[in-house]
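Lab notebook, bench 4. Still working through the backlog of constructs that have no structural model yet. Next entry is a single chain of 153 residues. Request: give me the structure tokens for it.
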Amino acid sequence: MEFYTYAYVVQRGEFTSLLQYIMTSILLVALLVVGVKVMYNRFDTKFRDLGIIIVLGLVFLLGLQVNDYTRDINSAEESSYMVQFLNNLSERADVPKDKIRVNTLRVQDRMIVNIEEAYFEVNFTMNKDGYSLRPVEMINSNPKVVDVKKDGR
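Model written out:
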């Protein structure tokens, strides 16, 4: 079982897809160059065909970006709600945030919370306005902890 740290949950809400933005920018510049070539060589069909291929590539990449954008929005909302829950839990348990870990990245019923050396099952009310913690015993006392990568500087 994996447990995620507070820092990992916060970082997860800030992910962006840089590679797709770079590829889209390159294709837009290529489309501009091919568009200029088509204007100068109106009867040469190779530039027109190349332009159509680039437009199709752009449409494909834009479709991927829209899909990734909606997924990232949902992920950011889930991460935001989890951060809010962890902040509340940290205040109520009087424990630093870096001592709390969760076994899921979404706030949900029956998730497991690791506070220092103890493990608790979280049960939420119907509208998730309140929660209760119930102590649980873990079979594996050393679960894998997922944290942000530390910079080697």
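Notes after review: The two ends are 30 Å apart (CA to CA). The mean pLDDT is 82. Flag for follow-up if needed.
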